[in-house]
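Subject: design request, 150 residues
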């Protein structure tokens, strides 16, 4: 059973947040009782989230589901051209072995992608397309930060 401090349970509106330079979307929400950035809530591992009639639970980041390469990298991957992939991202590979290049590509370039959105994590045990749809639809939810969840 999940317990949380009801005093810190906040009604929010789910949002997908990203800006130039970010390497994936930020799952976030906005507390509409506050203005502008004062209402911004970044959802994190361990926070409680309740989306009425859809899902409720502790956010558990899954960083492995739906991992794939961006479209412009897929053909180079099929050909095993990991050094060329790193060059696309302006990485100097002179001192790396081919094996090291492959490891870097798998760790740094392979990303979680859902309907074209690059994600840093997805909610464990929730269909990625469904998770994304709740944020695209900006559903109303209830949020409690992890330091008030027991």
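Subject: RE: design request

Done. Sequence follows.
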């Amino acid at each position: 059973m999940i317990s949380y401090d009801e005093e810190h349970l906040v009604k929010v509106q789910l949002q997908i947040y990203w800006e130039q330079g970010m390497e994936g979307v930020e799952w976030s929400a906005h507390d509409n009782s506050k203005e502008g950035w004062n209402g911004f809530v970044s959802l994190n591992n361990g926070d409680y989230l309740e989306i009425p009639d859809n899902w409720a639970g502790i956010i558990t980041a899954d960083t492995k589901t739906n991992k794939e390469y961006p479209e412009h990298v897929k053909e180079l991957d099929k050909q095993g051209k990991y050094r060329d992939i790193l060059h696309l991202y302006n990485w100097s590979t002179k001192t790396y072995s081919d094996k090291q290049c492959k490891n870097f590509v798998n760790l740094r370039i392979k990303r979680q992608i859902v309907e074209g959105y690059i994600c840093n994590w997805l909610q464990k045990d929730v269909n990625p397309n469904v998770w994304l749809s709740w944020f695209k639809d900006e559903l109303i939810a209830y949020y409690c930060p992890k330091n008030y969840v027991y």
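The chain has four helices and eleven strands.
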